[in-house]
Amino acid sequence: MLAELEEIKTDALAAIGKIDNEPDLEQARVNFLGKKGRLTAASAGMRDVPKEQKKDVGQKLNEVRTAITEVIEEKRAALIAVRDAAAFASVDPTLPSRALPKGGLHPLTHVLNEAVSVLRRMGFALAEGPEIETEWNCFDALNTPEDHPARNESDTFYFENGKLLRTHTSSVQIQTMLKEVPPVRIIAPGSAFRRDEIDATHLSAFHQLEGLYVDKSVSLADLKGTLEYFFREIFGSKTEVRFRPHFFPFTEPSFEVDLKLHATGKAAKWIEIAGCGIVDPAVFEAVDGKRGDAAYDPGEISGFAFGMGLDRLAMIMYGIPDLRLLIENDVRFLKQFA
User: Fold this and answer.
1) 3-state SS string over 70-109?
2) Greatest C-alpha distance within the chain
3) pLDDT, position 83
4) Which range (13-17, 251-255, 304-308) has the least confidence?
């Protein structure tokens, strides 16, 4: 048995030494170490080896298997090295590398970062809230009656449990006032959702930036000064801003904010950019009712709120003609902003 094992080892090492390709090496491995290989067949004869020889034969069997395995692995590594060298033989390492394409921020991210930067310099803190909201936070606390069109299922995405996808980030203002006491000065950027038909100027999922400032003696002059400064920082010091009376359930008085655009080769025109107003006392009363205190007593404090679409800001800032370009992920469009 010992002589047979030594013969198998000698034959294996000789055969492997002559091999010059990987398929033949694999076949040699099968011939000697496979399930029907010579060494496997020899090891099956261990049952017939006398008891006093089993230890020596077993050691020899392991020695032969180890030796053949090591030679196969060494040969495999050598063949791979030869193959790799041949593959790189035609490569000139002195050639300059190809430039990798550079990524860039999405235009909405550019606009968000700039808007937040300006408002942070004015003392506003960032606030966040959930995108899945309750009707109370999204409508009731904001003085929006049950028969208001915005609360219809045709306008708002409702879940079976009665919750909804927030239609504006104003709900973050409510969340903040429920947790904090005045003075409060926050901005709430984020996604909002409405059942709008998608076209050049409407998306069902869009991005808003809303702000809230609550303190003693906050006035309409504070609101106008804040927004005029903000838009002139974003669009330039000569930007013309106007306020038109409007109606929102949660502010009184309320205004639409317009900017005057001067496009090359076209007559200047006003375009709506934001909504704003002085916080309605009913909002403060609803918050106090939920809090169970008088932290937002409308007789003691006042505030202003504003909101704008970041998508609309991006359209104006970069001259984008169609909102859908912002969500199509077309690299040809996006690389302009990289």
Assistant:
1) HHHHHHHHHHHHHHHHHHCCCCCCCCCCCCCCCCCCCHHH
2) 109
3) 87
4) 13-17
**In the block, residue with structure tokens 């317009």:** 258
What is the model's pLDDT at position 37?
Answer: 80
Residues 6+ apart with CB under 8 A from 102: 338
What is the rounded CA–CA span in Å between residue 252 and residue 137?
19
pTM over 0.85: no
Which residue bears the tokens 């959930």?
A: 130
- How confident is the prediction for the chain on average, in pLDDT? 89
Closest CA to 186 of 125, 130, 117, 229: 125
Question: Are the beta carbons of 330 and 320 closer than 8 angstroms?
Answer: no
- pLDDT reading at 265 higher than 70: no
Which residue carries 């970069």 as its tokens? 318
Model confidence band, residue 28 (pLDDT cutoffs 50, 70, 90): confident
DSSP 236-300: -TT--EEEEEEEETTEEEEEEEEEEE--TTS--EEEEEEEEEEEPHHHHHHHHHHHTS-TT-TTT
Distances (CA, A) of 246 to 1, 148, 250, 254, 276: 103, 16, 12, 5, 9
From first CA to last CA, the distance across the chain in angstroms is: 74
Amino acid 163 reads K
Cα 212 to Cα 175: distance, rounded to the nearest angstrom: 12
The total number of residues written for the chain in this structure: 338
Cβ(150)–Cβ(144) under 8 Å?
yes
* Residue of 217, 266, 260 whose CA lies nearest to 241: 260
Residue with tokens 């198998």: 8
Sheet holding 205-215, edge to edge: 125-126, 184-193, 205-215, 302-309, 269-279, 251-261, 241-248
